[in-house]
Design goal:
single chain, Rossmann fold, 8 helices, globular, binds magnesium ion, binds adenosine-5'-triphosphate, alpha/beta
Length: 207
Amino acid sequence: MGTFIVIEGIDGAGKSTQAKLLAEWFEKKGYEVVLTKEPTDTAFGKLIRRLVLTGGKEGIIDGARISHEAEALLFAADRAEHVHKLIKPSLEAGKVVISDRYFYSSLAYQWARGLDLEWLIDLNRFAIRPDLVILLDLPVKESMKRINGRSIKTEFDKIVELQKKVRENYLELAGRFPEIKIVNAMASVEDIHNDIVALVEHELFKK
Ligand SMILES: Nc1ncnc2c1ncn2[C@@H]1O[C@H](COP(=O)(O)OP(=O)(O)OP(=O)(O)O)[C@@H](O)[C@H]1O
Ligand SMILES: [Mg+2]
């Protein structure tokens, strides 16, 4: 079996930046790496990308409101395809799989949008548990500064409120899922990368 690492955190925490650096670090060490993300590029993922979030209210796809439950099921369907078509076969082939977001995102975000956490955990029970989940934690104000300028498909003040709740949820999930390790994401890109590498070596290679 290979190694499965997930990078999590609120919007703009630096997940994609750090996932790429970690993938390069493993590649330099000679590992075969699969760098992937959620939502995926499958049909379900593309549908999710058309979803416009509106704070605590129902999301909208192509002008039509969809319920929070349908939204959660859509993310779960995309994840099921991700697990069965890519993650599981890659791990079975002995590769290192690094995923930019995974089911912890569904728990943190959909819970913040009012769904029942236990239902969300049950819904995602099919998802292979990663060996290590890196939670990039930082204040919402800072993450907003980083993605300022990037178009966010949401009303601005509503998203700040939602992100604050999501950050709290992630921290609470870290107390429940022992594979989640919190990394302070308020540092430089390089310092954060070094912290992640130290965690990987400590947690996975027991150095
Ligand atoms: N440690 C850092 N300090 C300052 N800026 C950073 C840092 N890490 C990443 N950035 C910048 O912040 C922005 C967001 O980073 P990135 O895209 O990696 O975040 P993300 O968590 O993947 O965001 P999203 O959730 O929207 O996909 C980018 O412009 C990136 O260059
Ligand atoms: Mg990203």
